[in-house]
Amino acid sequence: QVEVQESGGGLLQAGGSLRLSCTVSGHIFRNYVMGWFRQAPGKEREFVAAIGLSGSSTRLADSVKGRFTISRDGVKKTVALQMDSLEPEDTAVYYCAARFTLIDQIVITVKAYDYWGQGTQVTVSL
């Protein structure tokens, strides 16, 4: 049983920074491509960032490029999403997700991911 747990959400003003963390337990962390997604009220869940098995490859949504960074720690089994220059449009519930694979290939579709956390709320005010 794989468990995914996010932490670090909160309320802050535009222009601020926040770091989300995701912990994965129950299986071999190095076999999982990790992703962050978000869902705003009334909208579909959308891709934010993903990182490959080794951590050497990453991908970011166009809307967050230059502002967000994703990283992983194989020892701690954690994935972090550093969010800078936050905007009100970034307000959403942020989800961490894990995709089991033996191929170091990043995918960005929601359906491709096997395990999900419960989400953490990020609210950015003007």
Please, could you describe this protein's structure?
- The chain has 126 residues and is an all-beta fold.
- Helix content is 0%, strand content 50%.
- The chain contains no helices and eleven strands.
- It has strands at residues 3-7, 10-13, 18-25, 32-39, 46-51, 58-60, 68-73, 78-83, 92-100, 115-116, 120-125.
- Strands 2, 4, 5, 6, 9, 10 and 11 form a seven-stranded mixed sheet that branches. Strands 1-3-8-7 form a four-stranded antiparallel sheet, with no helix packed on it.
- Strand 5 (46-51) and strand 6 (58-60) form a beta hairpin.
Uncertain segments are none
Mean pLDDT: 96
Radius of gyration: 14 Å
Order of helices and strands: EEEEEEEEEEE
Strand content: over 45%
What count of helical segments does DSSP give?
0
Tell the overall outline: globular
Task: Please give the number of β-strands.
Answer: 11
Largest sheet geometry: 7 strands, mixed
Share of helix, binned: under 10%
Structural class: mainly beta
C-alpha end-to-end distance: 41 Å
